[in-house]
Design a protein that fits this description.
Elements lengths: L1 H20 L3 E5 L5 E4 L1 H7 L3 H4 L4 H4 L1 H5 L3 H8 L4 E4 H4 L19 E10 L2 E11 L1 H37 L2 E6 L11 E4 L3 H5 L3 H5 L4 H4 L6 H9 L1 H4 L1 E9 L5 E12 L5 E10 L1 H19 L3 E6 L4 E4 L1 H7 L3 H4 L4 H5 L5 H14 L1 E9 L5 E12 L5 E10 L1 H44 L5 H30 L6 E3 L1 H15 L4 E6 L7 E3 L1 H17 L5 E12 L1 H6 L6 E10 L29 H11 L3 E7 L3 E9 L2 H4 L15 E5 L3 H13 L3 E5 L2 H11 L3 E7 L7 H11 L5 E5 L3 H4 L2 H6 L2 E4 L4 H12 L1
Parallel strand pairs: 17-19, 23-24, 23-25, 25-26, 26-27
Antiparallel strand pairs: 1-2, 1-5, 3-4, 4-5, 6-7, 6-10, 8-9, 9-10, 11-12, 11-15, 13-14, 14-15, 16-18, 19-20, 20-22, 21-22
Length: 785
């Protein structure tokens, strides 16, 4: 009995001792989770005594545990499982204050182990053991922060290293370092060189760092002494730059710019040399090219000058000094318009300037003055210079002195005009005789005693014939004198009318002369005398080609040259033109001569009838005005000249109509032409405007195409003048296959077919070469719809 009491007391004492000294919380519950024990540690840290908790349900004491879903873990324990919980993972928390140093956390950080309470091999409840892990959590957190900081530092270092490597590899400079030798002499024995040396010079970095003399061995022999001098001077100067040639791995020499700098240690001794090497080959080549161009400019005989947008002279080459008499120091900064142009010629300066701004360039002839007031004529070329942002910044001008040339041309033109007057002499004499005959007869009549009414009629006739004779003499003298005039704004229809008057008076009466120059013709900028001579020369040639009479027609029209037309005619530029047509019904020109008629002294006339300078003069005048000329001729049918002169920009800008390009609806067009360029451009025009296109280079191929595609073809565009099977024959065969086929005829000499009634009836339209995109598309739209 005594022994049993001793054991009971011993166990109770032991339990009390363990409860008092335990460094962790322990409590037990029955199967219904009512607390049956609550140790001293829990009383201290939870603030609840055993008497306050024993007998109460755990979730009644700590309601938040139910919300956190902790009850399932106790059910697992009642089923015989041991559950480990951590506050971080399971948010298991009995709200107890922490005893951690400095109370870095407001609540105790806990881990718990929940297990079954077993008595006599039966589960009679649960036991929960709680550990205070606050200090461990703090240490872990601090350790984790340190790890994260190290990781961030490492990432920054790796990023910095990557950036540095990228900068070194992508830098335009090759970076390097060199160590001094033991005698304090500087060398270029490299201890480091950036990897981009492989890309820049073709050598591996190891070749520089493993071979002390590698850099020196590859310097151009002529530059070695210069580089060595710079290196020897580096010690006192601390910084040197040298440009020299270096042998690239591909065996070519590259120009390098080597910047060297001495880095000193704390005790003022040389620590190392750092440097940067730049490949300046492109710059050196550009400098050499600029120097070469500058040398050419210096020796050029042409005057080359540059003006800013306010007309101030910025550059003046020796050629300009020689031509104008001003030295560069006298003229730089001066107003070009004021210095180089007299008052009457300043309008020409403004025209050239406006054209330069509008089109980017201008070419033409200008009357200028020199330092001593002498007037000169120059062939001038202006180019608009733009900056890196494509804004205009200056105008480059190249002027060639053509004063003597123009004087000779004036003499030549005067001689050529006198030749034309000679060819008109018989007509002039005939007309003057017709004028003078009634005057002489009237003089005798006036001596007689006549009625007053009759006398008045005779006096009126005398007055009219005298005026008629004076006008004829005035026209002939004006044309014969023909001194070269100033270029100015000209209305061409006035010149056409003057030519008609001369021709009416001097040409045989068997030649019918008609003109058509509408009032809405655009103005041109040119020399009226020279333009007068163009039309006179062509009219005289037309007269000579019609010995048995015929018709001469002179007409003018406004024309807009588009890109496709310009591609067909290399002399044409896109823009507004005046087209003057001179057409006769004379003998025509032999095809073998068509390519020669504009050559000087070429003529098919008798020696006494002409020098062969007429058409060459026409060509020269037209080109000097920035225009071009086209000729079409058929032996026995006549000749047609079309003269295109650029319209003056001052008058046509607002009057040019919007270009209308009728669109197709997927129709299939067969193009037939022996000229490949015309086929290609016409095909491009049509396909760009919603047409489908087949092409044929001759009549045989056209028939083959039509046989293959048949009724799919909506219209045929047929060149009427082709070698082999011509357009007329091709049209006949096409009609035999398909009587209703729509065909548009194309020719450079349309009147030959316009007069052929049979052909005309077979065509739905006729198109004259060369044609613009608008003309082609309009005639197609009209024929198809």
């Amino acid at each position: 009995m005594m022994n049993m009491n001793f054991n009971t007391n011993y166990h109770q004492a032991l339990e009390h001792w363990l409860d008092a000294l335990a460094d962790q919380g322990v409590f037990t519950t029955d199967p219904n989770l009512k607390i049956i024990s609550w140790n001293h540690w829990l009383e201290i840290h939870s603030g609840l005594s055993a008497s306050e908790t024993i007998g109460r349900n755990l979730f009644e004491v700590y309601p938040p545990l139910a919300k956190k879903g902790i009850e399932r873990f106790y059910r697992q324990a009642l089923n015989g499982q041991v559950v480990m919980l951590s506050q971080r993972l399971h948010r298991y928390l009995l709200p107890m204050s922490t005893s951690a140093v400095q109370h870095q956390l407001p609540y105790m950080q806990q881990s718990a182990r929940i297990g079954p309470l077993i008595s006599e091999s039966k589960i009679v409840g649960t036991i929960t053991v709680i550990h205070d892990v606050t200090e461990r959590v703090i240490r872990e957190t601090q350790l984790q922060d340190q790890i994260e900081e190290l990781e961030r530092t490492d990432a920054v270092l790796r990023s910095t290293q990557a950036k540095l490597e990228h900068l070194l590899s992508s830098s335009p400079a090759i970076l390097y370092t060199c160590q001094e030798d033991h005698s304090d002499r500087i060398t270029l024995n490299m201890t480091f060189i950036s990897d981009n040396v492989l890309e820049k010079l073709g050598y591996h970095p190891n070749q520089f760092t493993h071979h002390p003399n590698f850099y020196f061995e590859h310097i151009h022999p002529d530059d070695t002494e210069l580089v060595l001098t710079k290196i020897l001077n580096l010690l006192p100067s601390k910084h040197e730059t040298v440009e020299h040639r270096f042998l690239h791995a591909d065996c070519s020499y590259r120009w390098l710019r080597n910047e060297m700098k001495v880095i000193e240690s704390i005790d003022n001794k040389i620590a190392q040399v750092v440097g940067a090497i730049y490949d300046i080959t492109d710059r050196k080549e550009a400098e050499a090219q600029i120097e070469e161009q500058a040398a050419l400019i210096r020796i050029a005989k042409d005057a080359i000058l540059v003006k800013d947008l306010e007309d101030r002279i910025l550059f003046w080459n020796p050629g300009a000094e020689h031509l104008y008499g001003w030295n560069a120091s006298e003229i730089i900064g001066e107003d070009a318009k004021h210095k180089l142009f007299s008052q009457i010629h300043k309008n020409a300066f403004e025209v050239a300037k406006k054209n330069t701004f509008d089109r980017g360039e201008w070419q033409g002839e200008l009357h200028q003055i020199t330092k001593d007031g002498q007037e000169i004529i120059v062939s001038s070329s202006w180019t608009l210079v733009r900056d890196s942002k494509n804004y205009p910044k200056s105008i480059l001008t190249v002027n060639t002195d053509i004063t003597e040339k123009k004087l000779l041309e004036a003499q030549f033109l005067r001689v050529q005009r006198m030749e034309s007057i000679g060819t008109l002499a018989s007509g002039i004499a005939h007309d003057l005789n017709n004028i003078l005959s009634p005057i002489l007869a009237a003089v005798h009549l006036l001596k007689m005693d006549l009625p007053e009414e009759k006398r008045d009629q005779i006096l009126t006739m005398l007055e009219n014939n005298t005026i008629r004779g004076a006008d004829l003499v005035k026209q002939v003298l004006s044309f014969a004198k023909g001194l070269q005039g100033e270029r100015t704004i000209v209305q061409i229809r006035h010149i056409v009318e003057e030519i008609r008057l001369i021709a009416d008076e001097t040409f045989p009466k068997t030649i019918t002369i008609t003109t058509n120059a509408p009032r809405e013709l655009w103005l041109i900028y040119g020399d009226p005398t020279q333009l007068h001579q163009i039309l006179m020369n062509l009219s005289v040639n037309a007269r000579d080609a019609m010995p048995n009479g015929g018709s001469l027609k002179i007409s003018g029209e406004n024309v807009w040259i588009d890109e496709n037309y310009a591609r067909l005619n290399l002399d044409a530029d896109v823009g507004a033109y005046i087209c003057i047509t001179v057409k006769d019904t004379g003998t025509g020109i032999n095809p073998d001569y068509l390519n020669k008629i504009f050559e000087p002294f070429f003529t098919t006339k008798e020696i006494s009838q002409g020098t062969g300078l007429g058409l060459s003069t026409v060509m020269g005048i037209i080109k000097s005005h920035g225009g071009f000329i086209q000729v079409a001729s058929e032996v026995g049918e006549g000749t047609q000249f079309k003269i295109y002169l650029p319209a003056a920009p001052e008058n046509h800008a607002e009057t040019i109509p919007e270009i209308d390009f009728p669109q197709g609806q997927g129709e299939l067009i067969l193009l037939v032409d022996d000229e490949l360029v015309i086929l290609e451009i016409s095909q491009t025009i049509l396909e760009s405007n919603n047409y489908r296109v087949l092409t044929a280079k001759n009549g045989i191929e056209a028939l083959a195409r039509y046989t293959q595609y048949g009724e799919q073809i909506n219209l045929v565009l047929l060149n009427m003048m082709m070698p082999g099977m011509d357009g007329k024959t091709t049209l006949k065969y096409l009609r035999s296959i398909s009587p209703d086929l729509k065909v548009i005829g194309v020719s450079g000499w349309p009147s030959h077919f316009e007069d052929d009634v049979a052909v005309k009836q077979e065509l739905v339209g006729f198109l004259s070469k060369p044609y613009t995109s608008q003309e082609l598309l309009k005639i197609l739209a009209k024929a198809l719809h």
